[in-house]
Amino acid sequence: MPSDRQVHEAVNKLKEAILTPDVEAAKQAAREIVAKGIDPNRAIEEGIRGSTGILAEKFDSGEFFLPHLVMAGEAMIEAGNILEAVLPKSSLAAKKVVVVGTVEGDMHSVGKNIVAMMLRCGGFEVHDLGVDVKSSAFVQRAKDLGADIIALSSLMTTTRPYQREVIEELESLGLRQRFRVMVGGGPVTREWAREIGADGYGKDAAEALTEARRLVGIEV
Domain 4-91 carries which CATH code? Predict the structure, then answer.
């Protein structure tokens, strides 16, 4: 049985590899965790998901750029695959499903991509519909996948009303209670989210992950 110090050192090694970011080092750290018999659930929660907030802070401060986040995301996913492979199937809860995209008329993708990556690394199954997505496409895809959350990005004031349109379409089809809807993007505010009846709002990728986990009842 590994000591608390060994566990702490091994998990920190994984976390540091993700934050570097170094994909191969993260995979090696995950393999060492498995070899030492350390609880993979703890490693996933503290080493992988524990990195997401730090990554978002580094991006927001200008210390990290999009390529850093992409590499860190790959490191998280590769390490997570190694750790999840040794978890008992009974302990692998079905992942919550998020449909994410930028609303109709809006071609901005960077913010949406960061949020999608953060959600994926935070344990969600993410289906990215891309940019300029019609409201009906969000609804149909969510229905097809049995999604838990629809995440709507808007980076232009002129396209922001399409976030409301998605919610109105869900209401008209009698599906509003079936999905949680969260919104974000440059012109989007918490007040706007309340006005249109959205369930959640994230001002950045880190808050989006926290909000998504809250919406589906995952402890944050």
Answer: 1.10.1240.10
Q: Give the Cα separation of 67 and 52 in Å (integer).
A: 15
The CATH 3.40.50.280 portion of the chain extends over: 97-215
**Which helix (H) or strand (E) covers residue 180, if one does?**
strand 180-184
Q: Report the C-alpha dihedral over residues 173, 176, 179, 182, rounded to 10 degrees.
A: 120
C-alpha closest to that of 118 among 191, 166, 69, 83: 69
Domain limits, CATH 1.10.1240.10, in the chain:
4-91
CATH superfamily, with its number, for domain 97-215 = Cobalamin-binding domain (3.40.50.280)
Q: How many CA atoms lie within 13 A of 127 on its CB side?
A: 20
Residue 18's CB is within 10 A of a number of other CB atoms, namely 29
Report the SS3 class of residue 121.
helix
Give tens-digit pLDDT for 54-112: 887 888 788 988 788 889 988 988 998 899 888 776 555 578 999 999 999 999 988 88
Name the token pair of 12: 């920190």
What single letter denotes the amino acid at residue 210? T
Task: Please give the distance of CA 141 from its chain centroid, rounded to a whole number.
Answer: 18
For the chain, give the mean pLDDT: 91
